[in-house]
Design brief:
single chain, 136 residues, alpha+beta, four-stranded antiparallel β-sheet, three-stranded antiparallel β-sheet, 5 helices, 44% helix, elongated
Length: 136
């Protein structure tokens, strides 16, 4: 089996909801200024801004999803996650997302082990590939 890409797409969450992106940035800036004022130290402003900024950075970076013949790849910023199709036991669609589960039956571990694919405008194509690779 080759590992040729079947489908690849990119989702940028902040572009889908720019108002939320601006409000989060303003909140982080206000919280950083408050931390610096409360500690009476300008260094706290910069430290808290950097720490909180790194925490929400994945929301501002584009996420690239790639479905290949043998695996699913999610790449965001400097991180790349890859899982083989055989590791997923079931899937579920909800709106413009597809959730891939590693356990056959619903479990409390689903939130920690499952992968969420945000499909954007490619919902039909993603569902066609996922339903072929992970039969229900």
């Amino acid at each position: 089996m080759s590992d040729k890409p079947l489908l690849s797409w990119k989702i940028n969450m902040v572009k889908q909801n720019p108002a939320k992106g601006v409000s989060v940035a303003v909140f982080i800036l206000a919280l950083s200024i408050f931390a610096g004022t409360a500690a009476n130290n300008i260094l706290f402003v910069f430290i808290s801004f950097i720490v909180l900024g790194i925490y929400v950075l994945p929301y501002y970076l584009p996420v690239t999803y790639t479905l290949t013949e043998t695996s699913v790849i999610i790449k965001t910023g400097w991180m790349k996650k890859k899982r083989e199709w055989g590791e997923f036991r079931r899937w579920q669609q909800s709106g413009k997302t597809v959730k891939l589960y590693t356990l056959k039956n619903p479990s409390r571990l689903d939130n920690y082990r499952s992968w969420l694919l945000r499909t954007g405008q490619k919902t039909g194509e993603v569902i066609a590939i996922v339903s072929e690779k992970i039969p229900l």
